[in-house]
């Protein structure tokens, strides 16, 4: 993947990363700050550095923009790590390490920006109570059906094979 070429084509950029170039550029300095803070004290494997890192030489994915694009493409398309290995010219273990590390840093960044999805049901109820019109976007989740037949009927949705 060539970030420099893809960023000049906004439609293609958004189709592979799910972000516009402007949104990507907005997020970039925050991710860079998280990356620099993490990389100063920790290795890529998550171990504490023996000596603080002031000059960061990273050959896995050289620029932070490539790193962010690497992660966003993975999150949008969910390809095999072998696919990312071939696309970004790295090894599969490096791809695995980068995916886990960058996911952690992105979650931390989004949390700092206040853009992380709310997972606390009580806070959601409190927020929803103060709003007149609410549209919920939910997904059905499988549940473990009880063993007792009379309780199973209450959990049955009416759909075949559900």
- Note the gap between the termini: 40 Å
Please compute the radius of gyration using only Cα atoms.
Answer: 21 Å
Mean pLDDT score, rounded? 81
Could you say which overall geometry the principal axes of the C-alpha atoms support?
Answer: extended
Briefly summarize what is shown:
The chain is mainly α. It contains eight helices and no strands.
Polypeptide structure, described:
It is a single chain. The chain has 162 residues and is mainly alpha-helical. The chain has a domain at 3-113. It has eight helices and no strands. The radius of gyration is 21 Å and the shape is extended. The mean pLDDT is 81.
Secondary-structure blueprint:
Elements: H1 3-6, H2 10-17, H3 21-41, H4 64-77, H5 81-88, H6 92-113, H7 121-129, H8 149-155
Question: Which key phrases capture this entry?
Answer:
162 residues; mainly alpha; 8 helices; 57% helix; 0% strand; extended
């Amino acid at each position: 993947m060539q970030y420099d070429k893809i960023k000049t084509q906004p439609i293609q950029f958004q189709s592979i990363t799910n972000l516009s170039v402007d949104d990507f550029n907005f997020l970039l300095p925050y991710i860079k700050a998280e990356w620099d803070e993490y990389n100063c004290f920790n290795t890529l494997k998550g171990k504490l550095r023996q000596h603080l890192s002031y000059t960061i030489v990273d050959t896995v994915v050289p620029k932070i923009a490539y790193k962010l694009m690497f992660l966003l493409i993975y999150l949008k398309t969910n390809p095999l790590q072998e696919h990312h290995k071939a696309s970004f010219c790295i090894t599969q273990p490096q791809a695995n390490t980068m995916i886990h590390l960058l996911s952690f840093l992105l979650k931390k960044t989004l949390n700092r920006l206040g853009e992380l999805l709310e997972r606390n049901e009580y806070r959601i109820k409190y927020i929803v109570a103060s709003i007149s019109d609410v549209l919920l976007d939910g997904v059905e989740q499988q549940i473990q059906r009880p063993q007792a037949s009379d309780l199973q009927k209450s959990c049955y949705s009416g759909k075949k094979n559900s």
